[in-house]
Amino acid sequence: MERERGNPSANQPNTDQPSRDLEGRLPSLLPQEIGEFLARAGRAKEKGDLEGARAAYERVIALSPGLAEARYHLALIQAARNDPNGAAESLRAALESEPDYLEARMTLGFLHSAAGRGEEAEAHFMLGIGLKERSQPGEAEACFREAVRLKPDHAQAHFNLGDLLRDAGELDAAEAAFREAARIDPNYLHAFINLGATLHQKGEMEAA
Questions:
Q1: What is the DSSP letter of 4?
Q2: Whole-number Å distance between alpha carbons of 48 and 35
Q3: What is the CA angle 77-53-167, rounded to 5?
Q4: Are 60 and 93 in contact (CB under 8 A)?
């Protein structure tokens, strides 16, 4: 199946570097209570429960204010929930604890750049692309949904939303997203290819 990753700008967070697997790497190194909340945050994100993940990360930060990676992951959730100011504040706090935290610094720069251009829908789309590349599907989906809410004719946002929904097994919703992308842009070849592939998965051969 064809996939399109969008056209990330130069100011987008670096998606070539592997994401820091906070939930998988740190709990064994931290006090048990912090590890439990990190695991809770990871489970919430897997379910798409961004509010639950946010609450868990905030609890981790209350227990360990200097843990930069918890603040970074909280910032991603805040950005996905349309709170760019809160995200920027969390990123600055992460950088105070760890000045060499490259991903946090680049994400902060990206948020400032997008806000300066006043392109809110595009900012959510581009952040969604970065989160998708970092294997953060819950946060990425929230960004793509916000992008299409702000700009309903954003074909690429519909397409990438469909991509995530298909990966999650939500084939009806993925079909709708791919159809909308194709409707908005009749020349969007990737949308038609993925629509056909989704219909094939659903067993609707004639429609495909």
A1: -
A2: 20
A3: 75
A4: no
Tokens representing 116 are 């300066």
Judge whether 42 and 137 are in contact, CB under 8 Å: no
The radius of gyration of the chain from alpha carbons, rounded to an integer in Å, stands at 18
With 0.70 as the threshold, say if the pTM is over it.
no
CB 63 within 8 A of CB 33: yes
Can you spell out the DSSP letters for 95-162? HHH-TT-HHHHHHHHHHHHHHHHT-HHHHHHHHHHHHHHTT-HHHHHHHHHHHHHH-TT-HHHHHHHH
Model pLDDT for residues 104-163, shown as the tens digit of each residue:
887 887 777 666 554 678 777 877 887 787 788 888 898 899 889 988 999 999 999 999
